[in-house]
Amino acid sequence: MQYGTLWISEESVSDFQGSASTPISPDRFPKFDPMGVIEQRDADLYSMRQRYKNSKVDTPHEKEELLKKIKEIEAHRTHLDSGVSMIRHDLLGSRHGPVRREGLALVDDWGCLKSMVRTFERHCGSLTQYGMKHTRTFADLCNSGVTNKAMDVAAKKTCRSVIKQQGNHTTWAVLIAGSNGYYNYRHQADVCHAYQILKKGGLKDENIIVFMYDDIANNSYNPRPGVIINSPEGSDVYRGVPKDYTGKYVTADNFFAVLLGNKTGVKGGSRKVVASKPEDKIFVFYSDHGSPGVLGMPNYPYIFADDFIQVLKTKHASGTYDEMVIYLESCESGSMFEGLLPKDLNIYVTTAANRYENSWATYCPDTTTPPPPEFDTCLGDLYSVSWMEDSESEDLTVETLKQQYLKVKKRTSNNNTSEGSHVMQYGTLSISNKTVSIFQGSSSKEFSTDRFPKFDSMGVINQRDADLYSMWQKYKRSTTTEMQQKEELLKKIKEITAHRTHLDRSVSLIRSYLLGGRHGPVRREGSALVDDWGCLKSMVRTFERHCGSLTQYGMKHTRTFADLCNSGVTNKAMDGAAKKTCGWFKMGQWDPEIVGYSS
């Protein structure tokens, strides 16, 4: 940019810089090749990292001191960024400061700006040259009419909590794999991997509660018996995982009772529950199939969004936790919280996808990021491996939840392609300014100071198709000596494919009968999937009574059932349409009276 008395720019440079007596080449041309650069505010830390990298092994003490200094600077910068962000949120909420007309000065009252800076530093420590970037925020506060007294209160509150955030509390974790069957290998692999991260981070087994069907590690199809891996070069993540709730005890009711700390409410299993206290933190991670407003479980019924939100409200009302973080891997996972989760429960959520889109399996056979050749199933899920591989490569005492969210968001988008999803966040967003270590613990290993996140494109398979995809992979690889097994597998594939086709056609016909060519009413952005959750559950149950189990695949149609409810269609009308559509259908293995109802 240029400013001031612009006509001076017409004068020669020599008037201000002098002129060398060396001859100048007449055919010279200025070079405008791209230059390698480092952002100004990061250059000092970058240089320190370079010095650390190049330190000789005969100067270990100097190297240790340098690493310590790097970590201290990184931690203080994170503290400054988090502190300013939290103060801004406290004083302005989601508002921006007033828009300044082009050409105006940064602030009207420079005395106010200087007071804001001084007040912040009195409570939160020196801004340093790095942190002076936040003067724009302080200017916004001044331009918005925020008083120095209000700033004093907010800074005192914020930086007291930042200092206390590593204080005396227990971190609890609940890990849920919501599927079963070898072809859903990835969900239990995700959960086992998460356990290993938390365990290495210092969480105790007594505070980690694991839900998994436990039919993968020793499955006859597993090419590495007794071992589960979550990435192509990954180590065994199964060893040592507590088997708190397995098999028939992996239920929605048990999950709710565990989260609420209701020991008398659990059935079977270890009877371990989240016996948290008011100052404690809770981390919840779920991985499986999902659908609009629903999360799958290996045993019926499924988890519906209204029930889950009510459990979270009840937990909050009990006053038995300070803050909770939920990471959720499933299709349409955003629909579990959008328009439903209050912002004042001290719960921060990130989801693998928004309310409309699929999530993705990864490390799948015949993709660009395949598993070891002996595996015919997907090893992980894109969102899940993204946050876990980040947690394993970063210093979690420095990285904030927001920083992890942004990196996971970028990687899960798969470079903003159609083979990726939009990671979302909900709830009490100010919690994202806390460090990840508060909720996941922190490994004592030494972290590389020149690490950079990897955002290479990942080979993926649509979450709902991944189990069938894995079955096809196994079928393709079966040898002629396994002919009987191969024929049985092909029969199973055909049965599943036929049932999925039946579900899709039946729902389409029922919608046509009940709504004609109309769509359901347009839902305002940010509103919940449905107003009457009882109606939605009744629609699902009525459909299954006549047309057979929706299965985790068919639960994608809950959006259609929600449209029916939002359009005022009665359950009686649904009963007539489902009977008319599926009266011919022989349910066999899909009979909900045998396998259970989804709702």
From TrEMBL:
Transmembrane segments: none annotated. It comes from the Eukaryota. Keywords: Disulfide bond, Glycoprotein, Hydrolase, Protease, Signal, Thiol protease. The keyword Disulfide bond applies. GO terms for molecular function: cysteine-type endopeptidase activity. Gene3D superfamilies: 1.10.132.130, 3.40.50.1460. The keyword Cell inner membrane does not apply. GO terms for cellular component: vacuole. Residues 68-159, 491-582 form the Legumain prodomain domain. One of its GO terms (biological process) is vacuolar protein processing. InterPro entries: Legum_prodom, Legumain_prodom_sf, Peptidase_C13. Belongs to the peptidase C13 family. This is Legumain prodomain domain-containing protein.
